Amino acid sequence: MLDIKWIRDNPEALDAALAKRGAEPLSASLIALDQKRRAVAQSMQDMQSRRNSASKEIGAAMAQKNMELAEKLKAEVASLKDTLPAAEEEERQLTAELNDALSRIPNVPHEDVPVGKDEHDNVVARVVGEKPTWNHKPSEHFEIGEQLGYMDFERAAKLSGARFTVLTSQLARLERALGQFMLDLHTSEHGYTEVSSPLMVRDDAMYGTGQLPKFSEDLFKTTDGRWLIPTAEVTLTNLVAGEILDQEKLPLRFTALTPSFRSEAGSAGRDTRGMLRQHQFWKCELVSITDADSAMDEHERMTACAEEVLKRLGLHFRTMTLCTGDMGFGARKTYDLEVWLPGQNTYREISSCSVCGDFQGRRMNARYRNKDGKGTTFVHTLNGSGTAVGRCLIAVMENYLNEDGSITVPDVLLPYMGGITRIEKAA
Length: 427
What we know:
The chain is an alpha+beta fold.
């Protein structure tokens, strides 16, 4: 959420930022709504002040036995008492309307983010590794998985419908190995604290990280009003909601390996085959809570941590700087890691690492106490996938495919595979 005071002071900057994102200008309407709210608040304050002073004047008038004045003042106090509730209600409604409007405005892009319309305007930051070369023909992951006998979409559909997958035996173990490898890497070498957190949250948590109110259709909701998390970013970031932290203890770095749940609203017809776009998938999430001065450096660090996963797996990938038109709602700057999939003969996103400034901190009312002791500042937050386990499984399957249809297990995963070095067709 953006600060209305900043918008009042920088209306042109807001409209310019929205234009970069392909959105219409909003500063004039927001400022007008805020002025109306402030006028009502000032009127209410004036009425309260007058009621208090008139109440004191009643006592003075009665002490002077000026009953006519006392009765007149009593009538004025009664009138103010009757008028105030309506003003208070109007002020509450205007405040709610303003907060709702502010909650739907995307974050302001960082100054070094390339301006563009969509994914075609993203910029390559770096390329790591090389595309594999074989004598045999590449295959897509669902072809490989079904031929091995360990990937079943028909039974998944019987259980849950479209966009679900059943993995069995060695592929199920490979998926588990990937998640454990990521978690171990980030906790033992990258300094992240492992967290086991709920998979269902209240409205406030979804609001705090920006999923609500704008993106409710992308989420799953339980019958008792809780939401299934679309990413562990929600729970990890909201760990500090409503708190005041010590600046000396920042950054806080959290990681979690959890299922993620997404309705994939608006994705009809996209990636309908296979497990690229699922309603449920595993992801190793990275979250950092830091101060204003460290946020951009922390973004580079987090991205490097996610890249290290792909490097150790020996996967070819590129890191993209997203343009203003392709960034997520709460991001100021985002790097996407795109892994090479030989079966599709293209790059596909496998991780997205974003720095959000104080956008989420303000929504969560999470602050840190400044080192100099002079007040508090909203925390700056970052989140990233370290990485999406399902998509990483797809990448390993397609990049480590052998001519006989088996899959070689990457060396870094061997400690998790119980002696399995190659995934072969079910007997």
